Amino acid sequence: MTDQIPHEATMPLDGPLVDTYGRVADDLRISVTDRCNFRCTYCMPAEGLAWLPKHEILTFEELTRVLGIFVRLGVRSLKVTGGEPLVRADLPVLIRLFREAGPDLDISLTTNGVLLDRLAGPLAEAGVDRATISCDSLLRHRFEEMTRRDALDKVLAGMRAAEAAGLTPIKINCVVIGGTNDDEVVDFARWSRETGYEVRFIEYMPLDAQHAWEREKVVPAARILAAIDAVHPLLPEGHANEPATTFRFADGAPGRIGVIASVTEPFCDTCNRLRLTAEGMFRNCLFAMGETDLRAPMRGGASDDDLALLIRQGLWSKWSGHRINHPDFVQPARSMSMIGG
Fold first, then answer.
1. Strands 106-111 and 77-81, bridge-based pairing
2. For residue 242, is pLDDT > 90?
3. Which residues pair with 163 in a beta bridge?
4. Is residue 106 part of a domain?
5. What is the pLDDT of residues 197-206, one digit of tens each?
6. pLDDT above 60 for 3
7. Is residue 13 part of a domain?
8. CA-CA distance, 114 to 306, in Å (whole number)?
9. What does the DSSP assignment read for 273-314?
10. Would 14 be classed as within a structural domain?
């Protein structure tokens, strides 16, 4: 696949959302806030970031309207993200609006889990189908070092609450950083076997606000799998439409292992993902250098058809893939917390 947009292609004005490479986009991630109650070292500085003022954040009505347009354009899956989405006040109310806008949507959320112990039930009742919870260490002291919060017990309680509320299957996202937590991958696999959770190991990506990412700290997914397979033999399951390639335990134990090899084995050629930031910027790639402003036209009186055209145009400019492994790679100015996972 080349890195040039095929200029002879003509953008369709109806039908599914498609880019110039024929990839159909039907998976939307909506960030409902840029704020976060953690300060993960690979995402933001200890003092946090300059949060967006409230008037710049899309309202519940605006978020729901935009979601409805995406649903009309063929989006079938919604992931609610942040920042930390659970810090958005009255989130279950927003989820209920999302569910009304897309009755058949698969709705999930990605959270650090620290507020799930009290919100898992209300979120499930509002319409969330399942939860993905971030947890980068099972050791209390290391968890605190990586998140700058002594909250591992609270996160584990959140996982149990999510399971009790039926937000299953529970998926755990673990960012693996060389020299920091890479010695825990087998422990996480053992924990997966005990809990039945699917642990997904994510390669360390250049999405930190400090722009301090170091390639030598990337632990390849292949190495992670080899370490686990040597202790708990794995059988491949596949890739499907998820970013994770998944494996089950050969002895039939519960749980799953997944790897998201965004750096060493990019899956851009099958990408079906779209992103909307908390202030209404449409992004066609996590690493995109440009965005399409939907908030200003919407607040300026644009019709749903006008916004749908802007979305199609924004997707049409999507490149063939990120350039992390190219010498001319430029890290996005926004950090992961500002983009939305």
1. parallel
2. no
3. none
4. yes
5. 999 999 998 7
6. no
7. no
8. 39
9. EEEE-TTSEEESSTT-S--EE-HHHHHTT--HHHHHHHHHHH
10. no
Q: List the structure tokens of 90.
A: 């009255």
| Residues across the chain | 341
**Residue 244 CA: distances (Å) to CA of 129, 200, 262, 339:** 19, 7, 9, 20
Q: Give the mean pLDDT of the chain.
A: 91
305: exposed, middle or buried (Cβ count in 10 Å: 0-12, 13-18, 19+): exposed
Quote the tokens at residue 337. 């917390």
Rounded to whole angstroms, how far apart are CA atoms 19 and 322? 15
> Contact at 8 Å (CB) between 162 and 115?
no
As a whole number, mean pLDDT of residues 269-278 equals: 92
Q: What is the largest CA-CA distance in the chain?
A: 59
pTM of the model: 0.92
Taking a C-beta distance cutoff of 8 angstroms, is the pair 78, 28 a contact? Answer: yes
Domain carrying residue 313 = 27-339
Kindly give the interhelix angle for 116-126 and 152-164, rounded to the nearest 10 degrees.
30
Q: Is 332 exposed, middle or buried (0-12, 13-18, 19+ CB in 10 A)?
A: buried
Q: In this structure, what is the dihedral angle of CA atoms 327, 329, 335, 337, given to the nearest 10 degrees?
A: -100
- Is 313 a domain residue? yes
Give the closest residue to 43 by CA, choosing from 158, 211, 187.
211
Of 69, 75, 81, 67, the residue nearest 25 (C-alpha): 75
Residue 47 phi, psi (nearest 5):
-85, 0
Place of tokens 């063929």: 74
Q: Is the pLDDT reported for residue 26 higher than 60? A: yes
CATH of the domain at 203: 3.20.20.70
Count the domains in the chain: 1
Element holding 337 (H helix, E strand): helix 336-339
